[in-house]
Structure formats: structure tokens, C-alpha cells
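Milestone 3.1: sequence recovery, worked example.
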């Protein structure tokens, strides 16, 4: 039985997994108002919520700390201050209860739980979140990046635009509500092979808001960026000849993106997989789930554990 702790960014998540089955998955998200994530404030939120979330997860799973075999935690990539709260909490529990720890790469956890739940094996992976936008394949235990954003993550595009138009809590899901029923206005479309760029799109959209209405520009921002994601995904699909596509990460919760990818996969005759929302937003269960997969190779003594803010999935190393 694995306890997973996620703390890469604005969410402190915990979850308990046993033999691939999720027994609990309860977290809490820091919601900044009128600003982006200030790492120190998010880290304080995580420290304050740690004990409460641990109790809630143990209660939901109906287990005690003594029943847990190992503690998996997010090793990176992420915000240093936030990662360290998860690490320190995990170390404290590991030392107190005499458990081993498993450092988990955050994108790896998103990918593995999406694969496991959707049942799409050996897929082309589209990983889309606030900080990350990557097209990946796994080959012989290593991940290869086929394409990625050259500037910001697609989720960050929505958050930054939300702040630009004065949303108090600027978040992709809130912006998606505003975008409903909007009309299309042309925005820059920047695809370079299998790479993407979103910064020009953000600048242009921010200017366009002064001319038109917020709803139309928000709608067009989603349509344009998702069309870009579909184009690069389809190109990678034909290059790799994989028989399925999964989408994972926070932005994978967006139903319009899911719909566009699903119809693309249908046309191309390949499978499409996506996990339920609770596993696409940052969560502890995915860390526990991935920790269980790498348990044999990944177990370490608490004093040998650290964090790596720039831990890209293509640098994944299983100790
Ligand atoms: Fe994430």
C-alpha cells in the first residue's frame, strides 16, 4: 500500500493506492486572487493543510499509517518551495513510521494513471498543463519528447489571459465558462513542425480584447490553441504510427479539447484515452499509483531523497 504526496504547484494532493486500486484521493488547491502563483504563499498553504489532508485520506481509505508500505512523493518538476513541503512531510512520516520513500516524476505519474485507467497501451501521449505542453512516446522504458511548447504551457496561456482581462481567480476552467457561446475571431496560429508557441497568441488576444468582447476572444483562444495541439498530435501520430492517443495533465479536463482529439482519433482509426478529471488535475493518487509501479526500483531511504525543480520526463531515472 502506497501513500502518495503531490506538491509541485498550487495543489497539495494525497492519495492511497493498493495494487493499482485507488482507495483515497483528497487534495486541496491554493487559489491566488488577482495574481499568479506566488511559490511562498502556495508552500504555506501546503504546510497548513498537510496534517488535515493526511487524516482525511487515511480515514477515506480506512487504513492507518502503520498499514502503508512506502511513501511516494513528487520529486519534480515544479516550484522549489512547494516541492520541499511535500518532501519534508514525506520524510517526517517515513522517519516516524519507519517507511521507505519513492521519488516520482510528476509527468510520469500523469501519464501512467491515464494509461492505466483508459487502458490505451503504448500510446502517443499529449501532456498538457499549466507549466507543460509536450508530445511524448515511451520506448524501452525511456520517454522521448517529439514536440513541445517553445515558451509557455498551454494552461499558463489561459491563466495569463484570464489575469489580463481582470478575472479575480484566473484559471482555465473559469475562462472556459466565459468562452461558452463565443464567436470566432482570427488569432495567430503558431506551429513549428511538432513544436508550438503560445506567447504571440497571448499578446494578440490581449490586444484583441480592447477591440472586441471578452467572450469571443476567450472562445477563439481555446479554439486556436486546441487546433494547434490537434495538428501536432496528428503529425506525431503519423510519424510514430502508434495505435492510440492519450491526453493527460490539468488541461486534459477540458471537454472541448477531449472532443477535438476524440474525433481526430476516430477519423484516423486509433484509440483515444483520457482519465476522469480527478486524475488529470494534480492529485496524490497518481503519485501513489506511479510509485507502486516503480516500487521495486524506486525505493530509497528518506535521507537519500531530494527534489529536482527541472526534472523533465525525458530525464526520468529510476534508481
Ligand atoms: Fe500536473
Amino acid at each position: 500500500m502506497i501513500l502518495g504526496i503531490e506538491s509541485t504547484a498550487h495543489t497539495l494532493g494525497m492519495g492511497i493506492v493498493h495494487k493499482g486500486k485507488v482507495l483515497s484521493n483528497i487534495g486541496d488547491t491554493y487559489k491566488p486572487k488577482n495574481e499568479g502563483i506566488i511559490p511562498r504563499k502556495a508552500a504555506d498553504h501546503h504546510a497548513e493543510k498537510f496534517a488535515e489532508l493526511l487524516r482525511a485520506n487515511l480515514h477515506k481509505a480506512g487504513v492507518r499509517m502503520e498499514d502503508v508500505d512506502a511513501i511516494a512523493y513528487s520529486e519534480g518538476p515544479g516550484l522549489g518551495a512547494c516541492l520541499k513541503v511535500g518532501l519534508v512531510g514525506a520524510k517526517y512520516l517515513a522517519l516516524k513510521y519507519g517507511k521507505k520513500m519513492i521519488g516520482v516524476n510528476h509527468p510520469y505519474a500523469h501519464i501512467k494513471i491515464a494509461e492505466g485507467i483508459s487502458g490505451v497501451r503504448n500510446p502517443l501521449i499529449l501532456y498538457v498543463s499549466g507549466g507543460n505542453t509536450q508530445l511524448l512516446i515511451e520506448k524501452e522504458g525511456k520517454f522521448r519528447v517529439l514536440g513541445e511548447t517553445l515558451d509557455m504551457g498551454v494552461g499558463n496561456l489561459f491563466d495569463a489571459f484570464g489575469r489580463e482581462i481582470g478575472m479575480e481567480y484566473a484559471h482555465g476552467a473559469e475562462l472556459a465558462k466565459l468562452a461558452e457561446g463565443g464567436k470566432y475571431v482570427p488569432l495567430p496560429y503558431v506551429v513549428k513542425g511538432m513544436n508550438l508557441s503560445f506567447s504571440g497568441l497571448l499578446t494578440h488576444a490581449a490586444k484583441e480584447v480592447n477591440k472586441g468582447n471578452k467572450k469571443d476572444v476567450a472562445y477563439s483562444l481555446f479554439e486556436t490553441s486546441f487546433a494547434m495541439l490537434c495538428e501536432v498530435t496528428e503529425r506525431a501520430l503519423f510519424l510514430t504510427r502508434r495505435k492510440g492517443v492519450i491526453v493527460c495533465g490539468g488541461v486534459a479536463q477540458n471537454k472541448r479539447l477531449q472532443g477535438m482529439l476524440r474525433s481526430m482519433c476516430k477519423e484516423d482509426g486509433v484509440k483515444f484515452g483520457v482519465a476522469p478529471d480527478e486524475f488529470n488535475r494534480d492529485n496524490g493518487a497518481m503519485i501513489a499509483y506511479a510509485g507502486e509501479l516503480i516500487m521495486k526500483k524506486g525505493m530509497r531511504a528518506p535521507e537519500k531523497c531530494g527534489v529536482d525543480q527541472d526534472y523533465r520526463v525525458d530525464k526520468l531515472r529510476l534508481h
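The chain has a mean pLDDT of 96. The pocket of fe (ii) ion is lined by residues 106, 110, 129, 249-250, 282 (CB under 6 Å).
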